[in-house]
Amino acid sequence: MVEMVVYNIFIYQTSTGLLFWKKTFVDKIKEKKVELFSSFFSAIQAFVNDLVSDTSTNGLKNIEMGNYIINNNPVPEIDIDIVIIADKEDEKELELIAPKIGRVLCNHSELFEDWDGKVQRLRVLDTEIIEVLLSDSSLLTQDLISEENKKALEQTRNINYIDEYNFLENRYNKTKHLLKKLNILNQMDLIAQKINDQDRLNLIKKQRIQVKSDIKKTKQQITYYLKRAKECISGNFQKRQVSDDSIFDLSYRDAYINLYSFSKKLKLLGNIELAKEYYIISKYLIDKPDKIKPRFRFILEQILELPDSPDAYISSK
Questions:
Q1: Which domain holds residue 281?
Q2: pLDDT higher for 311 or 24?
């Protein structure tokens, strides 16, 4: 079998074509050509994304260029494309390693959130992606899998992991989105395991218990507040099933209080847009501006039709 070599790996944001990360493993392709390719592929990706519909799974997969193959593997759950340039003799090998690289990226998904363009944030990927390639020594040239390079990787990996841990800890402390907190803790846990830091693991365990408790409590509160708001509105409908004017004139103070609290709790589940919408609607119930009078009954019916299950309001964003 002809030895296959990976020359370059690029990581792009699928939706924008933004280049997050790149790594050159062999100098056979000159740096200027790598830069040219990076811009070229980003433009092609944008073009293909315009051609295919949002619901389509079709996209750019493989391009053959002379003796090279350009292999593209999307990771849709984190809006990323992995692009690999390699010798074209063994495409099947690329198909095996790309999912492994995808799993590495998913384990570090927070690094790509609100990215500020600072490459040092993504240094931890250098170590893990190279480790994936090292798992099959035919993918790299012998100088890259030397004992010297392996030792150098080992020395930098813990520094990079601690930097990432500190970054994640900062995001954990800043966000109020409880499910986001849980996801961040899971990524922090992976790092603490890799650096064998038992103190951090114990702290994460306590934090995870607290966050799960907060999620459970928030769901209970959402159920309670929505139920009380609906009871107030339903009670008024039963009082006067007549004109829209009479419905408008009744008191909705209890509905306002509970819908307002409902909207605040939605933020904790990450549903920011719906939280804003029902905060505004809750104010309508107490302020009753004249502009909403013609559609006031519709607004009330809209509230009554809201799902009772708190799980319906969970946002993964």
A1: 214-313
A2: 311
